[in-house]
Design a protein that fits this description.
The structure is a single chain. By secondary structure, this protein is mostly helical. The chain has six helices and no strands. Helix 5 runs antiparallel to helix 6. The protein is globular, with a radius of gyration of 18 Å.
Length: about 140
């Protein structure tokens, strides 16, 4: 059970810290400049963790397995982070910005999962999406 739960717990914990940090980027600092610091630290941390956790790891050899996904993911993550930083700079509250985007994301991913991955679209999933949208109404009232 722990192996099933720990990744989601890590995502939730990291996302909480992520939102706090995104809101905490100094208002006088350009979000793109802050991203250069963020990704420098991220690169170093990832390399250290790779060598600590992968016995006899060969990082350069790992790079030969790269396809389009890590490259596009790097671009997408910049969009996510810069979007949140700008959202906070213009006044979104930390308690609603992530919730609003998550509700829209949940609905969009139901469609993506159905269309591109042939995941079943059940009545309970549709009901859940409707509840998310109703929640958006109440959050933004």
């Amino acid at each position: 059970m722990f192996t099933y739960i720990w990744p989601i717990a890590l995502v939730v914990f990291s996302n909480i810290l992520y939102q706090v940090c995104a809101k905490g980027v100094p208002s006088e600092m350009n979000p793109l400049a802050s991203m250069t610091v963020t990704y420098f630290v991220s690169t170093i941390a990832s390399a250290i963790l790779y060598f600590l956790l992968v016995k006899d790891g060969h990082l350069l050899k790992e790079y030969t397995h790269t396809n389009w996904a890590p490259i596009v993911l790097g671009l997408v993550i910049v969009g996510l982070e810069v979007g949140f930083i700008y959202a906070y700079k213009i006044g979104w509250q930390v308690s609603t910005a992530s919730t609003v985007q998550s509700a829209f994301l949940a609905v969009a991913l139901l469609i993506v999962g159905f269309v591109f991955y042939h995941e079943p679209l059940s009545a309970s999933k549709i009901f859940g999406a409707v509840v998310c949208l109703i929640g958006l109404y109440f959050l933004n009232r």
